[in-house]
Structure formats: C-alpha cells, structure tokens
Design brief:
The structure is a homodimer of 174-residue chains. With 174 residues, chain A is an alpha/beta fold. Chain A is built from six helices and six strands; from the N terminus they run βαβαβαβααβαβ. The first copy, chain A, has a single domain, classed as 3-Layer(aba) Sandwich (Rossmann fold). Chain A is globular and about 40 Å long. The N and C termini of chain A lie far apart (40 Å). β6 of chain A pairs antiparallel with β6 of chain B.
Amino acid sequence: MMKKGLLIVNTGNGKGKTTAALGMAFRALGHGMRVCVIQFIKGSWKYGELESAKRFSDLLEFHVMGKGFTWKSENIDEDKAAARDAWDFAKVKISSNEFGLVILDELTYLVKFGMVSEEEIMDILCKRPQNLHVVVTGRYAGEQLIANADLVTQMVAEKHPLKNGIKAQKGVEF
Amino acid sequence: MMKKGLLIVNTGNGKGKTTAALGMAFRALGHGMRVCVIQFIKGSWKYGELESAKRFSDLLEFHVMGKGFTWKSENIDEDKAAARDAWDFAKVKISSNEFGLVILDELTYLVKFGMVSEEEIMDILCKRPQNLHVVVTGRYAGEQLIANADLVTQMVAEKHPLKNGIKAQKGVEF
C-alpha cells in the first residue's frame, strides 16, 4: 500500500537543515497535527525554538537524546549504548501512531559514526504508520535513506557568517 | 559601523527556502524578538503557518502583498504598480526599527521580473537598522544581493515528491 506520509531528508553542509525542519513543524502544528521532535545531538535545537515550542505544548513533544553524544567521548561503548537507547526511544515514537510528523534531528550521525546500522533505521522508517511524515536531518545522509526518501534537499552553503568573521547572533543563531 | 543584524538569503530551486525562513521566525520569536513577515507572492505561506502564527500575535506581524502578483497578468503596468506598492510597504517596515527580524519572502521575483531594481532594494537593505536581521527568500537571487549577504544557502532539490507522482500533503505541503 502506498504511504501517504512522506519521508523527507534535509542534508548537505549548509545551514537550514534543522531550521527547515522547524518550519515544517510550525506548519504542521498549524494544521493541528501532533508533532514529535527527537534531537539526537544535544544542542541543535536552541533556546529560541524551545521557548516557542512552549506555545504548542498541546501538540508538540520535544525530546533531547544523546546526552553523551558529544562525539568527543573516549568511551566508545558508552556512546554506542547511548545511541542505541536514543534510537530505541525513537522507534517507539515512530511506531506509536500518535503523531502526524516525527522529526529525527541529526539522526544521520548515528549511522555515520557506526552507532546504529542504516538497515535497521530504514526498516523502521519503511514500516512506519502510513500517514506519518518523517523528517530526517543531518549531514552525510546514507544511500539507503536517500533512495527511500520522497524528498531530499541538499542545503549548500554559499556564504557563511563564521567564515566572514561574524559571530552567530542571538535569535537567529547559525 | 559594522552591522550586528545579518542579511540572509535562501535561494536555489529546491524546497526549504520559505520553510527555513519560517524556522528562523520560530526561533527568533522564542527569543521574544518582534518579527515581520512580508510575503511578496500570494500563497507561499499557507494555512498551517498562518494558523501557527496566531499563537504569536503579540510578536509576529504577517503581511500578504502582491494581490495581483500571479505573474500571469496581461497588464504589466498594473503588476508593476502592485510590486512598487509592496516594496514601498516593505521599506517602511524595514526602516521602522520595530523589529528584530524581517522576512522578505519571495522578494527576489520583483527583481527577476523587472518590477523593482536591485540597486534600490540593496540601498534600503544596506541602510537598515543595525540590529535588524533580514531574510530574503526566492529563486534567482541577484548578484548584488548575494555579494552583500552574510549568509547564502542554496536549497538544491535532489528528489521531489511531485516528480515521483506523489501529491503535496496537507500539513507538510511542499
């Protein structure tokens, strides 16, 4: 049976991957959809959006995973266990049938760093409830993810303020 | 004097230009910033985000310009007058010093279709209040706009659901 929910991937080295996912959440919430955001790397959602999210507490769930995912740990087993826990949590949310949109923010790094296999992730994504839209963000989107996605956008940085010596600004925060 | 507010351009043929701008609005609103969105092409902001925007009526102004900008008009003089009115309105908002973020959604088309000159637009953008962030979205970003921007992101479509024969979905709506 054809899925009605789309699998969307925002990848590439530019800005706007998480920001565009945020915009999709904003849009979906306006339709009264229930939205679940799972952040796999601590800190990709920042103060601004967390404050704004409070205005949608009736519809929006926000979960910060990856407490230990600084990717600087010297204990790879601990990192893998934390990644596994995060993914197990995400699986429950994806399969719950409670949401219209699930955002898996920076999920790609779990595959990139060998924490969870792409096969396992794709298996769950392909078996998701048929009306569920899923957005995956992060660099290094894998081949299977791209092959199965309905929409893939590459965000390509042409100019970046940090390269120009301008520091990230509060409220916009690149 | 160095501006603290950034000039940001989301361009390219992919999805996510307006959506990423929406995400920036969501973020800025969370910081309590006042945000003004000016939509130069009718319909680029849709039902979902308009409904969500209502939850920020204390901080967010939303203006739909371009009543006549279907770009299908046979009356080019009428189109030009409407574009001029829209730009004049935007100028007031940009210069007002009332906002932390102004989003000029699909502004690029005014230049592309010869409605307003790039020189005039850049003059106003470069003279904006120094703490004001401006986001310009749309395909065909002009050379001067790119040259003066602090951040330019090209959204590049790798896969698009319409190309795969899947219709746009309510709540996500590409």
